[in-house]
């Protein structure tokens, strides 16, 4: 039995970030990852570092995280290929622009200023390739993108350098509380600690349920595709308000096309089965909107496995039932940007008992309250 | 021959019209199963019988009897009722047995009850310094030009490497009046001793005489240097010279065209992308799909035949194609299976065809230095990653080809690892003191061949486009 200060289950960006921040606060955690760090959502996502268009309940966390992204190299000794060319939400119709206007007004009333309403002229300046008929949109200028595999790997490496015990290639099993401590088996090893962090991504719901705290969560697998190199034509990350499309061109000219169309996940094997008819819709939209892309080839398409909760918000914070248990999963397709901040917040909750970052709407307790069941959602 | 698939769903889709695919499709279609045979080339034949129906080279002697033997299989498949789709590139296959293919600039999805993958072999990467220079190409590429358009390499031609195809290609070039200045044989002489136990069956196999005759033919007409232990192409803008070492002596010669080849390995990209489990073959030094004795893979309904199942050559491929076809017929239309030779007969025919292979496999194991290059050599051509870059990433903590992507863009370019994958696996295995099996391979994703955005956008919305995708 090896004693540690905390056991973290899951080597995605969240588990790795929490490991780093616990180490920075002087703790010695053990980080357990059943495959390898970054194998799932955290290593294969779109890399969008976005405060734009977030649910208000997670905006403070996102802003906290943004501050960390801006000095990411100081934290993990790697620039993570983070770059900040802004993210732009494009309105294609007057109606969509009106919705944008209402959104920005709502945020301003809450005291948030990161989203800015832009008119057609500013939109054209930021994204010259966009159709003349688009009347405007919203920009979040500090947003950007980073390399997901590189970022998650950098956090994992840093955690190791700071003294975390890292175990990859074997899952944590036999999760139990005995004699006031959390215990898990990892292959033939056993670990115990007063603290357990459930950062198991798409598998986090099972762990929570196994410990008597079920939450409404489904496994989804959003798809992405990347094209061959095309001449630079777009700097910010672009999201269409009215369609399922997001768009990002890298420095080397390749273009990442996403937008939330779903593949079929196989959680047991980690595989995903792509839905080409849905990818065809994305291809068609890009074909129509950006003529420069028409000759490009699709080099690769893939999907990542992620947990989506009933209200599209993560489960973050202490357990409502057990002492020493903390949840950090269910990031519902937008948890990459939140990784650095969520790890810092988690370390504060664990070590200091509180955090200055408001995360009120994110606790697991919200599902225990009697409330109407969430609206049924279409299966992929 | 048709120009788009005539149906949305087939009993069997056979992918690849080389020896294995032709043999398989002829049987399944002959048994009355709706069979689609797809192939990306202009005509049937695969690599061995490339352009068999169209080649401008009409004098039979030039390409050899084995080449013309393909004609019968082509005739059989044409008579069988199989739907044959040439110039159709399969870019996706998944465990639901949905096939994505492109033809004439448009994309299509078709369903199958069974798949026979007969995607053949690829040339093993041959990463030497300068292998990316224009003027350096693979022997296979040269052979493709020869067979389909009768084009011969021009100028000072050097052929370097080893393996049966190297000698065959050299013989074909010389027979057609082409010039070869020098053949550099990199076969590792130490392999001879190791191969010795496998010699007896080889001596009575057809490979023995054919191989010997071909080597003699080449040696009679051009200079051959054996025991070559290092190669480096040099030049600015294109290849100008080749430095090599043989028997401890260094030489450098001017070249205009350098043809490289060190054997072939299964083309596993489509099978891997479909989720088929593969294992590392310690003798052939490559990945091969895990198959049962009827050629069925770990993914139910996907069979693999031909060189894609492990290198065996054309006649082995034909037998494996028949075995897979028989298994498919038995599963889908058992009464038609009764008319066919039984499995035991097919299996013993296969064993006969495989005789002598084990000797060749050991004899032609490429030497370490030609598989695991020195630091300066480019490994990943698409992203220009060198062996040093990879070793440094390992030192930083990269544990396998997929983890490497967090450090370098290896394998993320358009070749999808075809030109670097084996090198990366073996290089990382050596650097980490692990076996290639422990290190693993890139997780491959569709499209396994690039398709254009326009092609994908043209995919017809099927009648079930809006229905759930969960099936089978
Ligand atoms: C295609 C795609 C695109 C996306 N794009 C963006 C984007 O642009 N911006 C953004 O902010 N977010 C994006 N996201 C969301 C983001 O990737 C995820 O929210 C985030 O990575 C979740 O991190 P995680 O650490 O919770 O989960 P994961 O990365 O899934 O990590 C959880 C880990 O836990 C491990 N695990 C599970 N059970 C056990 C066990 N018992 N023992 C040991 N280990 C276990 C798993 O193997 C896994 O590696 C995207 C997601 C996908 C799939």
From TrEMBL, chain A:
The EC number(s) this enzyme carries: 1.5.3.1
SUPFAM superfamilies given in the database record: FAD/NAD(P)-binding domain (SSF51905)
GO MF, one example: sarcosine oxidase activity
Cellular compartments per GO CC: cytoplasm
InterPro entries xrefs: FAD-dep_OxRdtase, FAD/NAD-bd_sf
Domain FAD dependent oxidoreductase residues, every copy: 5-349
Keywords for the protein's UniProt record, in alphabetical order: Oxidoreductase
Pfam families: DAO (PF01266)
PANTHER family xrefs: FAD-DEPENDENT OXIDOREDUCTASE DOMAIN-CONTAINING PROTEIN 1, SARCOSINE DEHYDROGENASE-RELATED
Protein name: Sarcosine oxidase subunit beta
Source organism: Chelatococcus caeni
Automatic annotation (TrEMBL), chain B:
All copies of domain SoxA A3, residue ranges: 379-457
InterPro entries: BFD-like_2Fe2S-bd_dom_sf, FAD/NAD-bd_sf, FAD/NAD-binding_dom, Metab_Enz_Cyan_OpOx_G3PDH, Opine_Oxase_asu/HCN_bsu, SoxA_A3
Gene3D superfamilies: BFD-like [2Fe-2S]-binding domain, FAD/NAD(P)-binding domain
Record flagged with keyword Nuclease: no
Transmembrane domains' residue ranges: 12-38
Keyword Nucleotide-binding among UniProt keywords: no
Molecular-function annotations in GO: oxidoreductase activity
Keywords: Membrane, Oxidoreductase, Transmembrane, Transmembrane helix
Pfam families, per database record: Pyr_redox_2, SO_alpha_A3
Domain FAD/NAD(P)-binding: 10-321
PANTHER family, sorted: ANAEROBIC GLYCEROL-3-PHOSPHATE DEHYDROGENASE SUBUNIT B
Protein name listed in UniProt: Thioredoxin reductase/bacterioferritin-associated ferredoxin
High-level lineage: Bacteria, Pseudomonadati, Pseudomonadota, Alphaproteobacteria, Hyphomicrobiales
